[in-house]
Each structure stands twice: as structure tokens, then as C-alpha cells.
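Chain A, query sequence.
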Amino acid sequence: MAYARWDNPVWHAYRVPAEEPMAVRLGDLHLPERTDLRIPMLVRLPMERGLWVDSGRGHSEAAALLDEAELRRLALDCAVAHAARLLAAHPAGGFTVHLVDPAGTGAAALAPSWRRGGRPAGPGRGRGLGGPGAAHGAGRPAPDGPAGGAADALPPGLDTARQLLVVHDFPHGFDERAVTRLRYLADEGPSVGVHLLMVAAREDAAAYGPLLDPLWRSLLRLTPVPDDHLADPWVGHAWSYEPPLLPPGSAILRQVLTQVAAARHGKRP
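Chain A, predicted structure.
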């Protein structure tokens, strides 16, 4: 199930898995000269690096044909699809999603995910990485607990599920302290089961200059429109990436997240 495209009928028979799969599908790849040959883009679980859905234009021809608002909407939709798939790929209670959305601009698109499998931060909670909103909005903003496998050392009642922090519209609402903690989270979070999914345009953070270069490099860049930015170090090919878009008008995402929420609370969907 974790490897199937969103338009695959297998999703209509989705059941929450009993075990975590070896990998999860984040889109499709093809070569420019062989557009008919597509292979799934799989990322091993647990993820070793965070994800960055680029809401900027970059050098993509497809992005250049869209206005800024449409491109940002597609980036948010893409992030929702990624977060939902990660939730659906894990056993009940094994994965939790948190949201930092300072301006509240993603509330409408993200609401179905947070009602069924995540925890919202709400407007103005972007400071959660460095302020009072951390416990509710950002989950574990700066991991400082024991690494995976040391569950016996954790306090009773602590949520040991893997955590995904979705940061929308970065760097809006972030000060330098919060940016520093975000960089730390990107570097050290995966080792303790805390993962990052950013929705951001690099040009929006130009004021930080080279300070954020390590952050961008540490994340796996994904795009909301087809792009040929992925280089294959083994054979030297530049692969074209296609995001995992949902079929127009499909209700499958809502159905899957309803199943996830029901399993989390021990109820039938």
C-alpha cells in the first residue's frame, strides 16, 4: 500500500498496517528521453533526512507557467499528500503529525489531516520552535531525548511514536533563534524519531543569506510540479520528478485519514 500511486484502486481497500513498511512512495521518476518509462520514487523508512516541498519557481518550466498563488497552493496540497501517506504507512499510533502554520494560510487545506491524524498549531504558533507554543504546536522542536531503542529510559506516558513536524510558509513568523532550532531539528531529529517536512520558497528566506544553506542541503527537495532537479550519482542521469497528486475530485485521502483516526482511537471507521 505504501508503494501504490494515489490513483491505484488498492487504496479503496486500505486498512491500517500492523507493521511499518521498508519504504514509502514520494512520487515518480522518469528520464526526459523516456517519458513512457516511469519508476516509483521510494524513500526508506524511517527517513534519514527531512523533506522540503519547494513552493518557489526555481528553474522549472512547469512552475514558470503558474502564478505564485497557484504554485503555493499546489505545494501545500503536495505536502498534505506526503504527510497523509506517511500516516497511512505506519501502524495505529506509530506516527504523529504536528503543524506550524504562523499565518494560518494553510488551515483550510490542512484541516482534514489534523482532524484525523495530526495536531494543529494554528495561526501565530510559528514561534513554537522557540517559545511557549512548543508543547502544543511543534511537538518536539529540538530533540533532546534518548535515541531510538532506548524506550526503557523514557518517562512513563511519553509519546514514543515517530513525529513529523510540518512547517508551512517558512520563514514567516521565525526569528533567528527559531531558525537555529529548526536547523538543529533537521540535523538531529531523525536519529530520535522526529522528522521535518517544510513547505517553503528559498527566495522568501533570502535575507538569511548563506546561514540557511546547510538547512536546504540537509533536506530532500521535492516539487509540486514536474521538475528535473534530481541527479543520479551512480549513472549521471538527471531524473524528472513527478509529485504524487491525487486524482481530481477524489475522496480517497479523506477515507484513508478516517481509517487512520479510527485505528488510533480503537474504533471502527
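Residues 9-146+158-264 form a domain with the Rossmann fold fold (CATH 3.40.50). The chain has seven helices and ten strands.
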